[in-house]
Sequence to fold (310 residues):
Amino acid sequence: MQLLENKTIEATPEACAHAILDVVPTVMRIIRARLRDHRTCELSVPQFRVLAYLNRRSGASLSELTEHIGLTLPSMSKMMDGLVERGLATRAEDPEDRRRVVLGLTAEGHEAFQIARAGTQIDLAQQMNRLSAEQLATVSAAMEILGPLFTEDRG
Amino acid sequence: MQLLENKTIEATPEACAHAILDVVPTVMRIIRARLRDHRTCELSVPQFRVLAYLNRRSGASLSELTEHIGLTLPSMSKMMDGLVERGLATRAEDPEDRRRVVLGLTAEGHEAFQIARAGTQIDLAQQMNRLSAEQLATVSAAMEILGPLFTEDRG
DNA sequence: TATTGTTATACTCTATAACTATA
DNA sequence: TATAGTTATAGAGTATAACAATA
Fold:
């Protein structure tokens, strides 16, 4: 079923769901392998996502981070243990509400994130290079559609 | 950068890679949650993929399965332990080459796979229902593009 | 000797339950 | 009493290294 040229394909929600269930885990596997691999900063996917979040929202609390990533508090607390121990992240008391915790990245954490992201993007981009301009546009558009769809109802 | 309406977006391989790195892990999280949740057959994503493979290729060896899923042999061997113990899969000696192992699904394994797939697809499809016909077509087309791209160079 | 799997070991990811400390 | 986080415990997923069995 080659559908690309023909814009009149009827893509049902069910067919779409089926395709996503087929393809997304496969792409994920590639991303995971790339992240683990990329030298100097071997990161798991969840670790990478945490670094990405803290890179944007320095000073976030554990709860905020947890809700964004979609894990439980204990899981995230433990993950932070590892990142702090590796010297990639910081954890401190919030002086204004001492129940809370203020999270951030170390310089090394920033660097690890940048390197991991750059490396992984380069590898993904190499795959993308095999696509035509139109195919690239389609994939980009699809990501713009799926991103909000799956993030927005998470609050 | 809102690009949706405008079809003249220049989607570079790099931008595309960036978008994938953003969106795919998020979608994956939803899929994982759905699979775990769907009653009677709580499956991890890798387990689901194994069941899907054995559903199509009954009688596969451990190596064949391992290469398709993209794990190491020990990891897969251990995963099969779990599936066999749960009564979802079978593992037997190959009489023609006794180093090999012949894998398959039990009736229960078939059923678990069908239920998990159906349930997850229904949930994903509900999300997809919020999309326009054109958006659905875009997402479908993108999956048709990405699937082969990431599977084909894996042999 | 090469191939196919398994066992041993260890680390990360994840969850639930029970707890501590602060508000 | 409610909220933010940690500790304890356990199970799955993953890897590497070492091993066993068959070809």
Remarks:
- The longest helix of chain A spans residues 13-37.
- The CA atoms of residues 65 and 74 of chain A lie 12 Å apart.
